[in-house]
Amino acid sequence: MALTLTATVKEVVEKVKAILKPYDLQVDSVRYFEACARSERIASKFIVKHRVFFVGGSAKLPSPKMPQG
């Protein structure tokens, strides 16, 4: 089952349960739920004039909606 941006909490829980099998997951409540689109961008060049400009954390593209830890 593929999830979409319109997935419900129930659909997401069922998907996670399927992934975790043979382990059992019990969800009593959900405090926060939001569907986010995955975005991926790839630079056409990583080196310009013998200088690297994408390294480590700077190469990440976090969503402004996603909580950061």
Automatic annotation (TrEMBL):
<dbReference type="InterPro" id="IPR036188">
    <property type="entry name" value="FAD/NAD-bd_sf"/>
</dbReference>
<protein>
    <submittedName>
        <fullName>Uncharacterized protein</fullName>
    </submittedName>
</protein>
